[in-house]
Amino acid sequence: MNGTVLVSGANGFVGSAVVRALRRHGYAVRALVRPGSDIANLDGLDVEIVHGDLLDPASLQRALQGCEGLFHVAADYRLWARDPRAIRRTNVRGTHHILLAGTRAGVKRIVHTSSVATLGLREDGTPADEDTPSRYASMIGDYKRSKFLAEALARRCAQRGHDIVIVNPAAPVGPRDRKPTPTGRMILDAARGRMPAWVDTGLSIVHVDDVAEGHVLAYQRGLCGRRYILGGENLGLRDILSTVAQLAGRRAPVIRLPHAAVLPVAYLAEAWARIGGREPAVTVTGVKLSRHRMYFSSRRAETELGYHARPARDALADAVKWFRDHGYCR
Q: What span, in angstroms and rounded, lies between the C-alpha atoms of 305 and 318?
């Protein structure tokens, strides 16, 4: 049995997949969850559940006692919030708290879960990599800006001598996406037959379990201070939605919408959401992001870590099956 590691956000979509991967590799896992959180994603797993909050440093210090490693997976992944400051508090201040707690507890290694959202994109639409230039001013939306700042914190800690490896997952899909995430919601809408149109964009689709395996490989083989993209197959949005429609027995989308036509709808949806309190079906940030093809290369992770991602169709099939089996597709 390997030593004990703490996973923040262990009950979440990516976090629970990381927990499963760690258990497969023989690690003892301490799962950090907020009090009162839904822990259904951890049902049946041999893990130690501890309560804490990224905004409560004392709770993090207690949770990390006796741990040899830390996987900081927890994040506020929303493209819209009535109070955008909540996203920044969790993703930036919370990251500062847990990295500090980890170094004070003397953990041997930290894996920080960042995102491809922090990376630059290439103008010609070819896949970007870890060295593609990016800057804060080019970050679109509160989520991307907060993750950019959180990763900068992790990199500074590594520069000061702390053993921190950074992973940048692309667009994970698959089972246990309970909320669901923005990408999962798009897949769910397509599986329900509610996506008759698309905009010209693209994503790197990756199975959440492959992302989780990449976390473990980064912990075992990654170089300190280095970032690793954990991506999958780069696909246009029309191809993604058509594949989901086929898997779900729905009609594929047939209408291409210009971005300029969707943006006013997003502004109206957000204005209504502020009044009604429900998350908008389309967000301004999401539309602005869709102006770019978000394609990425995982070559570094493949070469240095031995990372491998299965075909996107397999990931989408597992996502559709899980949503159907758990009553989401009604």
A: 25
Specify the pTM.
0.95
- The 3-state DSSP class for residue 226 equals coil
Per-residue pLDDT at 1: 59
Residues pairing with 270 in the sheet: none
DSSP letter, residue 174? S
pLDDT at position 98 is 98
Say how far apart CA 198 and CA 219 lie, in whole Å.
38
Residue type, 60: L
Q: Which fold has domain 4-176+204-233+295-310?
A: Rossmann fold (3.40.50)
What is the per-residue pLDDT for 124? 85
- What the block records as the tokens of 136 is 């804060």
- DSSP-assigned letter for residue 138: G
Report the alpha-carbon angle 154-155-159, nearest 5. 120
Sign of CA dihedral 216, 221, 223, 228: negative
Largest CA distance in the chain: 56
Each domain of the chain, given as residue ranges in start order, spans 4-176+204-233+295-310
Residue 5 phi/psi, 5-degree rounding, is: -125, 145
Phi, psi torsion values for 320, nearest 5 degrees = -60, -45
Contact 280, 273 (CB under 8 A): yes
Q: How many CB atoms lie within 10 A of CB 258?
A: 9
- Going through 211-301 in order, the beta strands assigned E by DSSP cover 227-230, 233-236, 255-256
pLDDT score, position 135: 93
Element at 184 (helix H, strand E): helix 182-191
Helices 141-159, 94-105: axis angle to 10 degrees equals 20
CA angle 150, 177, 65 (to 5 degrees): 50
Which residues are CB-contacts of 172 (< 8 A; sequence separation ≥ 6)? 13, 14, 17, 181, 183, 206, 207, 208, 211
Residues of the chain falling short of pLDDT 70: 1
